[in-house]
Amino acid sequence: MSQQHEPVVRTPAGAVRGSREGTGERYRAIPYATTPTGGGRFAETRAHPGWPGVRDGTRPSPSAPQPARNFGRLDMSPYFGPGWIRGEEYLTLDVYTPGTDDRRRPVMVFVHGGGFVTGSTAAALYDGRAFARDGVVLVTINYRLGIPGFLTLAGAPDNRGLLDVLAALRWVRDTIAVFGGDPGNVTVFGQSAGATLVAGLLAAPAAKGLFRRAIMQSGSGTGAFTPQQARRITAAAATALGTEPTAEAFAGIPDSRFLDILPALSGVDLKTETATDPLAGLSPFSLVLPVQPADALTEGPAGDVDLLIGTNTEEGHLYLVPQGKFGTSTDTDVLAVATATVSSPRAALAALRAVHPDAGPGQLRSALLGDALFGRGSARMREAHAELAPGRTFAYSFAHRSTALDGQLGATHTVELPFVFDLADEPWLHGDTGLLGRGAAPEGLAREVHRAWVDFAGHGDPGWSPYTGGTESVQVFGA
């Protein structure tokens, strides 16, 4: 396509050339913040000063430095994307829009997951064509990850990845109208680590006025590290790097070295007298807060925000089935997970076995993991928001079981994403090692889930009654 036929939009920071893609227009790699290099990797997020001429927005931007991640037999490349695309200017966002006109369409801002260490806007699962088709302006964002994004350091603000998300939301407030979006009707939604960041936004005073609705997919309102836990990770990182735990000392260390030491951080014991590891050892990074988001909602915008929140019914399978650990799990493995994730492990196991008397060790281990990582924290957030903002909380459970990996993968973590983005028929999600497994996706399920998200973003009603407590007010998808 020649450049004269490609759309150009003029933003307050400068002009951007995009591309026309079937259902609308796509603008990629738009910087919302200054380039994080050297000591700037540990600084407060600053708005991008702008650019001269017309910026090329037809190709993906660099991504935050990140390690490769391997999920055994399961192909997770549609979720993680291409990995580290090297380049300094990665604090960028992509916009999909039905058109750059003066209409005021609902805006949805997506915050990707990936354990606070991986992920980017370039992941195939975050294609926004279905949202543009259905009259929504979709924004997907990159943010700082790993050590630059979340390690506590003297001389640096905490939660720099969250500060990036806040900066991107300010960009949306100030700019999205030129993309045909309504800055007064913004829904921020995230999955996994991205949903935990959304929880942080709901409790952040700085987020007030930046969005009207929020969606948490398989995140946690209690997924933050305590300052004490964060200091343990910082000490381990400084020891591995042979330097002082300060932003000044870390400023001269290359990103590749930060990635080299990640394995040394994964084994740090984070259990304290007052807290267990909210990520069950799966990531050395999270938000760092003195009070969990679910317990601090009155501090942020949560009381004025509609919330759609839910989890999948077999979240923990992702961390066992692809690695061959599900079928080989033992009672000892189950007790180890319980000991690491709950304060009274034997009592918790007895209660779990009472509910699932026929469950084997793999199922029990998965249930404990799923509850520790996402279930308890989502339930706590759901209850807290429903109490704070009655009639504005909507709950769901995603139960469709993927047939991947000989039918064992099930309704695991991430499996709802193709349905939210209405991509469930894409061939790269199918086959025995594809996220959705062999055969076609259930007829109509993607349309149902996607429509609920679009309707919620449009007018705050996903199609079922607000949460009032109990399972009868939880919408189940794909049972």
Structure report:
- The protein has 479 residues and is an alpha/beta fold.
- The protein has one domain (3-331, 357-477): Rossmann fold, CATH 3.40.50.
- The chain has helices at 77-80, 129-133, 146-150, 160-175, 193-202, 227-241, 247-250, 255-260, 262-266, 331-341, 345-355, 361-388, 404-407, 417-420, 445-459, and strands spanning 8-11, 14-17, 19-20, 25-31, 54-56, 92-97, 105-111, 137-141, 181-191, 213-217, 306-312, 393-398, 474-477.
- The model has no long low-confidence stretch (mean pLDDT 96).
- Residues 1-72 are annotated as: Disordered.
At a glance:
By secondary structure, this protein is of the alpha/beta class.
Descriptive keywords:
Rossmann fold, 3-stranded mixed β-sheet, 479 residues, 10-stranded mixed β-sheet, alpha/beta
